[in-house]
Please model this.
Amino acid sequence: MTQREHRLGELAERFGGEAVGSADPVIRRVASLGTARAGDITFFSHGRYRDELAATRASAVIVAREERDATPLPRIVCADPYLLFAKIARLFHEEPAATPGVHATAVVMPGARLAPDVTVGPLAVIDEQAEIASGTSIGARSFVGRKVRLGAGSRLYAGVTIYPGCAIGERAIIHSGAVIGSDGFGFAPEAGAWLKIPQMGGVRIGSDVEIGANTTIDRGALDDTEIEDGVKLDNQIQIGHNVRIGANTAIAGCVGIAGSTRIGRGCMIGGAAMIGGHLAIADRVIIAGGTVVTKSIDLAGTYVSVIPATPAREWRRTVAMLRNIERMSDRLRELERRLSELEQKK
Amino acid sequence: MTQREHRLGELAERFGGEAVGSADPVIRRVASLGTARAGDITFFSHGRYRDELAATRASAVIVAREERDATPLPRIVCADPYLLFAKIARLFHEEPAATPGVHATAVVMPGARLAPDVTVGPLAVIDEQAEIASGTSIGARSFVGRKVRLGAGSRLYAGVTIYPGCAIGERAIIHSGAVIGSDGFGFAPEAGAWLKIPQMGGVRIGSDVEIGANTTIDRGALDDTEIEDGVKLDNQIQIGHNVRIGANTAIAGCVGIAGSTRIGRGCMIGGAAMIGGHLAIADRVIIAGGTVVTKSIDLAGTYVSVIPATPAREWRRTVAMLRNIERMSDRLRELERRLSELEQKK
Amino acid sequence: MTQREHRLGELAERFGGEAVGSADPVIRRVASLGTARAGDITFFSHGRYRDELAATRASAVIVAREERDATPLPRIVCADPYLLFAKIARLFHEEPAATPGVHATAVVMPGARLAPDVTVGPLAVIDEQAEIASGTSIGARSFVGRKVRLGAGSRLYAGVTIYPGCAIGERAIIHSGAVIGSDGFGFAPEAGAWLKIPQMGGVRIGSDVEIGANTTIDRGALDDTEIEDGVKLDNQIQIGHNVRIGANTAIAGCVGIAGSTRIGRGCMIGGAAMIGGHLAIADRVIIAGGTVVTKSIDLAGTYVSVIPATPAREWRRTVAMLRNIERMSDRLRELERRLSELEQKK
Model:
């Protein structure tokens, strides 16, 4: 067997599940219920996929304890099928091997310090005094500014931009088009125009942080913008200057966070939510996608402000009513007055 | 006459309109009503521009049948002036001619296969085993990943990034900063932190698709993210992993579509609309700009959830009322009870 | 003293404040209240920071006239502490000195005209007939298209893309990933598909404009998209084709402005606001973050349409009520009728 083949029983043992049916099948790949074929392992995480489970051609399935008998196929029974699936997928997933070394067309400026096993892709630029730690890979066309520090085992995909002076921890994953350390949006009004305030802080990013494609993180005005360990940022997110994001908070795509706001630890922020500036959001707050946050949130819990899409004709009437709501309130009060009068006459 | 001059009559005949007034004017350019001068053709599409039509210095105008007499100028009368204008504009529009060939500073990795008439701009990178079909042009500083397939007649502008393994059809137009194939946002929670789920699917894009500047399309987790033929995506759109977008759907700027959602064919999605994950949107659905979609939509039609901007003072009162709406409902019920009681006493 | 040291009295005199306490301290740096140490000047702009003011280790503080006695430290008393702080910060802020010259790896195409003191970073591309005026700096990996004109004293950070034919004024600051001049989103429907309308206009940008990271500005369809002098654009903004933005308007991150809309002068648009197409917004309009604008605004003032985030359970009831609001209105009318009837019976 090569390294990329594992018997089902071996997988179960390794990741803490129980092989049921047979421990023998040789697994070579993970796949979805619908596309799996012989040699694949798949997972069953939700009752609505029961038909697909019945039809799957996978060699094995990962199921939850309460679904132990949901399939006659060889299976791994465990507490959290999605997590166990993630672990097996990581085992099988083949990262394109990068051969350490600096591509001939990359530009490494004098004074940059690269660990011997760093990979630098074609046409990347590493500016003066940048420090790149062991095992890190810099994608083609990426730009690492002056005095940037990049931790060990990190991976920048093609076309990442890091402004001077930013510091990033270990095992970072940064996707294409991400920009880290651009100027915060700071201007003082002067005689009808705007005077730019120099943005002199930096960006400090912890370890195990992932940053999505085309996401932007501004440098601080005076102090640093801070992203703590384990934060996961999806694509097209905008983080303003001097924002602080607590450890293990996950933020979905298109979210904007205005300057100086502090987000707690373990928060989950849904796609396209918008969070105003100078706010404090507590730990373990969940903000629904599309929600606008204009005030600080002190208590863990789920917060929303989204009105679901409605057929246009119906919605037009609702908006008209909404505009009339104050008038409705007045009419209510008037009715209450008249009715009381009438009741007293009895 | 050079190739870029056409008599009005010739244009009318070629594109299915009727030359009225005179077929003789020589047309060299298209222009707007306000900026047109001698030699230009313009178009009149909406009554509110009647003053500009009266003042235009164009040599000819395209008008709808019901506006046949709206101007004394030489004109083309047709069913759809905007469409006919588009066709004439395409005839006149001069694309900067790209001389086929690979620029000396581009990096083409071993095993990449380029048709002989492909153009590769300065400092572009074509990775191993990528296949670029005939007539395609790769802009400066673009990155085409390993095993990417790019169909014939496509155009990537400067600074496009395509991750490994993505497949794109013919006649694609992809604008600067677009990122195709970045990892989907997939993590399994484990002991308060997040375990990354490898994103092993790809992105499959049909023919005649346009992708706007800084738009991002994530690769699938297990299966592919799919964009069908004729889809038009504006700038700064985010498409999550395993989304499927049906043929000829048009999506305006800043829209976000969360993972595993399926959008039908012939849909139109307005700017900054946000569509949640795991939803199904039927064919020919129109979603108004700024609308948040949180549930599947089964029926064609127009959907909205947007409250139009209101002067701040007025809005503050509306929001306060909205917060009181449950209380208003209670008061209504109480009034109904008291009134019934009173009526029965009669 | 080197150039980067100034006595407090000198700073006060230079920028129009009054040195109080002592004019002697030597200032070498600006800092926030919390991080300042000896040699730093800081500022006090809001009562909520009074504790931090009491604890600061700064050598001097900038305070407003009405806060003249808020601290015993040496201080500058002035009308607008934030503005004066901005001016002193600009004095101290050290821009990384760029040595004029074209990096050996940059690609400057034939016919491009660069002033002698222009700086071009590694792997930047300047296309044919581009004109770059004196003192301008082009960051690494930036792309300046054919016939682009860039005014004096401008700075493009790493990885900016400017499409052919765009014109930008003096002292522009353009951040990484910004794309200027991509095609507007213009298509004519034809038999269920979309026919692309050539985008033949350009982008014309005034002087003293700042453009944030990953912001996109589309070229016009026929005429130009226009950004007037002094406009400040934050990150991830999308400006559609033929939009016009008036002088000194400031726009925060993630805002989208659809095609052909005209924004007045001196406007302030909050983050993630979305402004529809073909609208006219008057001068000095303030639009709150997250607001959706669907109609033209004729009067200066503040406009909002945002419902603040609410705990999920409470919000669910509010939305249910909102869906019932028409029914409530009907019930009100019915109550009014019945009550009138009852009153008349008296």
